Amino acid sequence: MYKQQLTKEQAHQKAKHYCAYQERCHSEVKEKLYGFGLRKSDVEELLSKLIEEDYLNEERFAVQFAGGRFRMKQWGRVKIKYELKQKYVSEYLIKKAMKTIDEEDYLATVQKLYEQKLKQLKGETNIFIRKRKITDYLMQKGYEQNIISELLR
């Protein structure tokens, strides 16, 4: 990505800007620092510095990511958990982030998505195909099977 190799100080400044712009997880920042052409020891040192300076906070990232994906993209817990795991966020922080999603909002959102999909499928006369399509849609959004089954009853 970068033609010339950045000095540790230049990389530190760029990383601070990168983290200040939007919450980041450790793996994203690590990847960025390696992209600047830094060695492993320098990357580890800069990561520690960014954490000390509070530019990098994995808990804050996880909570913000979960809340944002739920509110903006209306993702379910399954999909959010999966995405956080892909970013190497710890199980403990994933659980903590999941707790920040309000249960009433969560159920209201899945209900709303269910009703929207039902309206779209008005023309579908076969009830089994309709249920299958709704199930597929909600599972793809990341909602739990038990909640979907409850809605279909």
From TrEMBL:
Lineage top rank: taxon: Bacteria
GO BP: regulation of DNA repair
Main location: cytoplasm
Entry annotated with the keyword Cytoplasm: yes
Keyword check for Hydrolase: no
Assigned GO CC terms: cytoplasm
Listed transmembrane segments: none
All copies of domain RecX third three-helical, residue ranges: 104-152
Keywords: Cytoplasm
Cell compartments where the protein resides: Cytoplasm
Ranges of residues in domain RecX second three-helical: 57-98
Assigned protein family: Belongs to the RecX family.
Function: Modulates RecA activity.
Entry protein name: Regulatory protein RecX
